[in-house]
User: Fold this.
Amino acid sequence: MLGKLAGWNDTIVALATANGVGAIGVIRLSGDLAWSIANNLFPSKDLLQQKSHTLHVGFLKYNDQLIDEVVVSLFKGPRSYTGEDVVELSCHGSPYIQQNIIDLCIEAGARLAKPGEFTQRAFLNGKMDLTQAEAVADLIASNTEAARKTALQNMRGGFSVVLKALRDQLLSFSALIELELDFSQEDVEFADRTQLNLLLQEAGIKVSQLVQSFQLGNVIKNGVQVAIIGKPNAGKSTLLNALLNENRAIVSDIAGTTRDTIEETLNIDGIIFRLIDTAGIRDNTADEIESIGVEKSLEKMRQADLVVYLFDIATETVEAIREKAAEFQQQGFQYLLVANKSDQVNESVKKNFETIGNITFIAAKQVNNIEALKQRLVEKVVSGDLHTEDTVVTNARHVASLREVEKSLLEIRNGLQMNIPGDLLALDIRRCLHYLGEITGEITNEDQLDYIFSKFCIGK
Assistant:
């Protein structure tokens, strides 16, 4: 944990609600001067004599000039969000009034808060660890039920509890092993190697599960980019419209109608899919504009998390689609093969295409089997059921450190098997503890904290 940072003792102020006109705006103060600054602007009563966790209605005034009627919320540290003295002024939602109040607070001795500084102070004052602080930002940014549940689970300490239990057990073993070094002449063992090896096995399994959960966590947090590609007139734009249940893309029988990519988002079972309708891909075209569109389609395909290859089953051959599937596999693409216009062919034709494997048959124009395709999209990116109550890693910083923890656990186990000296074993354990501490914030630095909290909004 860090010591006191520059500006740590300052009283900070910021708008805690969104910018713009609204019914109510909330201005937050935190620091030693918070209550006195609010008291100087609130002549209705002496706030310094009031109890913590109380609300007070009255007028804000400055030099006998009426500013606004407000509700003042008082929180005495450490029983506050930041762990410091906190005041929240609920004023009317005029941007002019809000800025006027903030300016008066600054004139009285506060300074404007940096992005995420309230939550940063909560972390530095031990109100939450770093994973919980980062979950606050994830909760604010959540735009699906799955994202909300995952962020709330981590904010309540679900991830932290798992890591803390492992860290405490490793610390205990590390202390016993280092104690052995003080009695090296007596040749004694305080740490039970068998029990340590069992702990390392269980920890390795748990950490591996957390690392693997990042694939799901990344999908929940950031969504999935899906490129819908295929030849001209395969029905890509019709499919986009069917998935969205609206006429978003222009549809016609003229090949090459879609010249540029069209991007829309679709929420399926709590997962955000960013759908990209691309220009039809064909090798030879004399149209320069269409050629540019084709190149952009190929670029989007390379950038996508998932490729939906749509083809007209009435005009394509099994051999051609089999070759396309082999091409996607060779290039390492995640893909779905979708046979459009399946209402125009008989069952024997469908059975021939089924030999390729994993083909979804639809009729986009008639909106047939679109729900089945949606479920295939979810199944492709989520292994099994989506249990957001479980501990799920959603942060790339966390998974990078967890991979180092995984390596360290393996090195400790190898060291035990090789009967390496206790001082080297203790060194490996300390390395593992270091990476665990990086995740939760026991080990960090000012630059890292500034980077993490700079991504927060100002009033949080």
About this structure: DSSP finds 15 helices and twelve strands in the chain. Residues 249-260, 285-290 have pLDDT under 50 and may be disordered. The CA atoms of residues 12 and 111 lie 5 Å apart.
